[in-house]
Amino acid sequence: MKKYYVLLLVGLLLMVNCKENEKKEEVSEAEELAMEKMSGMDENDWIMLFDGTSFDGWKGYLKDEMPPNWKLEDGAMVFYPPSERPKGESYNIVSEQAFTNFVLSLEWKVAEGGNSGIFWGIKEDAKYGQPYETGPEIQVLDDERHPDAKNGTTHQAGALYDMVAPLEQAVNKAGEWNTCVLTVNYKEQRGSVALNGKEIVTFPLDNDQWDALVSKSKFASWEGFGKFQTGKIGLQDHGDVVAFRNIKIKEL
After folding, report:
1. Tens of pLDDT along 21-33?
2. Residue 134 near residue 121, CB atoms below 8 Å
3. Residue 23 CB-half CA count within 13 A
4. Which positions ≥6 away from 82 have C-beta within 8 Å?
5. Contact 240, 115 (CB under 8 A)
6. pLDDT class of 150 with cuts at 50, 70, 90
7. Strands 242-251, 76-79: pairing kind
8. pLDDT at position 42
């Protein structure tokens, strides 16, 4: 009889645990739905900026067409620097569409010793000869081999270039794909960078804290730098082989 009561007690405890687990799962699902509702977004809200099949939606900076040095290969856009570069010529590219508040997701990989960048807030105007004159940059870099990685942590992969350093090194080795998610939200005056699933950079936007960051950077005296909340997305020609794919954006 004693054994029977022990088994009964164990059974009741198992039933309580199952109910609690079910409740936790329900709460978790409810939280996920609430977060989705709060964000006001679902998978249908992503806009493909590059789907791997064409350069539609992209062009050279201050040009009407894509520079020929960018190629389509295996679902990626790949930049090959010219063997001889005309003086003053660059092959940076920008999105045809401008954005203000958004989440940008893309994958990138860089050749050994390579350097490139991801810009936002670019004002495409002949007054500004290069995208980096107006657009802040998220660094794309081979941290292991490129000398810029030794010029301070604010120059390493994933950094808000020359302004905010990554909390940790999350970049993969040269030649391997990295997933980068850039969030820019002027309404909340906040931005962030996640690299390979880790949030490694957060930064203020359009406030005194942002101004302080700029004032301590190489961009302090640049007239148009970071001044345009609405601007184009850009990818950099820094003279090295670099590839991008699965580029998509959600407007906030």
Report:
1. 443 333 334 334 3
2. yes
3. 6
4. 69, 91
5. yes
6. confident
7. antiparallel
8. 65
